[in-house]
């Protein structure tokens, strides 16, 4: 009877200690990272869907700018080939490859958007202006989504590395740190666009 009583007292104590070891908080934090990652993917997909329409609109006005149009189309196609699932978020090389591909799309879009400066007719085209506005809005949404994702990654990585959650993270889940997005090399410099030889 005494052993059963002791066991009865130890059971709640064991449950409390397991709760303090991240048994529930680690999966919750990981699901938050995955949800934020889903939002990033959604924004990138929206941008990928808008690009063909923007390219088609510009083609009618700026046929001689085929190099810019080809680069945008190619960057979009290349980015579509680099897949990154939630299971890959703890692999820095895969996250970097995905990030680099998406950054190439962002860099390719800038000259396309700046074409309106070289072609006054394009500047007044309602389709172009609408698509450009949507892409700019999507680029801003991508930045916000990436910031939210990085914050979720920071919270998750901190949780799995600090006591007492680190115990449960290692023993029960074998948790690995997730990889945040980093700014692309040279992103602090303003892009240079030259349409000096457009004709």
- The amount of beta strand, in percent, is under 5%
Rg is 24 Å
With helices defined by DSSP (H or I, 4 residues minimum), what is the helix count?
7
Helical fraction:
over 70%
Order of helices and strands: HHHHHHH
The unreliable regions are: 10-18, 190-199
| Name of the CATH architecture | Up-down Bundle
Shape: elongated
* Overall SS class: mainly alpha
End-to-end Cα distance? 96 Å
Query: According to CATH, what is the class?
Result: Mainly Alpha
Protein architecture, described:
By secondary structure, this protein is mostly helical. It has a single domain (26-173), classed as LemA-like domain (de novo design (two linked rop proteins)), CATH 1.20.1440.20. 73% of the residues lie in helices and 0% in strands.
How do the strands and helices of this protein lay out in sequence?
Blueprint: H1 2-19, H2 25-59, H3 66-81, H4 92-118, H5 120-123, H6 126-161, H7 165-173
Helix pairs in contact: 2-3, 2-4, 2-6, 3-4
Could you write a compact summary of the structure shown?
It contains seven helices and no strands.
């Amino acid at each position: 009877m005494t052993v059963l009583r002791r066991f009865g007292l130890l059971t709640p104590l064991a449950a409390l200690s397991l709760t303090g070891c991240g048994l529930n908080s680690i999966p919750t934090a990981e699901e938050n990272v995955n949800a934020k990652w889903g939002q990033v993917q959604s924004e990138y997909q929206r941008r990928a869907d808008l690009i063909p329409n923007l390219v088609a609109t510009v083609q009618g006005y700026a046929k001689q700018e085929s190099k810019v149009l080809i680069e945008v189309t190619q960057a979009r196609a290349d980015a579509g080939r680099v897949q990154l699932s939630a299971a890959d978020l703890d692999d820095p090389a895969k996250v970097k490859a995905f990030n680099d591909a998406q950054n190439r799309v962002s860099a390719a879009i800038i000259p396309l958007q700046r074409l309106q400066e070289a072609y006054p007719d394009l500047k007044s085209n309602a389709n172009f202006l609408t698509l450009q506005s949507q892409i700019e809005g999507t680029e801003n949404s991508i930045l916000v989504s990436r910031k939210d994702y990085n914050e979720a990654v920071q919270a998750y990585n901190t949780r799995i590395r600090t006591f007492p959650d680190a115990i449960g993270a290692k023993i029960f889940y074998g948790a690995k740190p997730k990889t945040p997005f980093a700014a692309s090399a040279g992103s602090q410099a303003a892009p240079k666009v030259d349409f000096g030889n457009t004709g």
